[in-house]
Structure formats: C-alpha cells, structure tokens
Amino acid sequence: MHEAIHKALPVHENGQALWERATAAYRGALHDVARHLREVSPPPHRYSVEETSDLLWLWFGPTGWHTLVVENGWSWDRAEQVLHRTAVAALT
C-alpha cells in the first residue's frame, strides 16, 4: 500500500496528505507493537519504547521494504524472513 501511495504523490492533488495519514497510522501501530514488546519482555531493556518503535519503522516501514524488494529484487517472503530475524536479534 505504501508503495502505491508513494508512486501517486507527484500526480495526486492530495497525495502528500494521504501519505502522511497512511504513514502516521502505520507508525502508530508500530509504536503499539514496541510498547507491547516492552510489556512482555523481561528487563533489562536495551532500547526505550520510542527507540524500539523507530527501529521497527526502519526495518518494517516502507523504505526498508522498498530497498529490499523493489531496488534489490528480493521476494516479499524473503524480505519478511530476513527483516524478522534482524529485528528479533537486535531487540532480544
């Protein structure tokens, strides 16, 4: 979805607002995941909730997917596997 919205930015009159709305909702969901991970993970915690949310955005936000899938030709499944393993290794 993010890729389609991003491609429409130059030609859609409300493209920027649509992009901001879509990414804000997704970032909010990742923040909820980060908070949940904090609640279920035993201390010590390596990163704050905000830092964890930012890292999740780095790995699972549109830029990470775009880089692996569109620019480098990875399959969606392979990108998901590698990003998941990377996140688990970094956050645990």
Description:
The chain has helices at 2-8, 15-40, 49-60, 62-71, 76-91. With 92 residues, the protein is mainly alpha-helical. Helix 1 (2-8) runs antiparallel to helix 2, helix 2 packs across helix 3 and helix 3 packs antiparallel against helix 5 (76-91).
Could you give a quick summary of the protein structure above?
This is TetR family transcriptional regulator. This protein is mostly helical. The protein has 5 helices and no strands.
Distance between the termini: 29 Å
Largest sheet: none
What is the CA-based Rg, rounded? 15 Å
Supply the number of structural domains: 1
Compile the SSE list and pairings:
Blueprint: H1 2-8, H2 15-40, H3 49-60, H4 62-71, H5 76-91
Helix pairs in contact: 1-2, 2-3, 3-4, 3-5
Organism: Catellatospora aurea
Protein name: TetR family transcriptional regulator
List keywords for this structure.
single chain; mainly alpha; flat
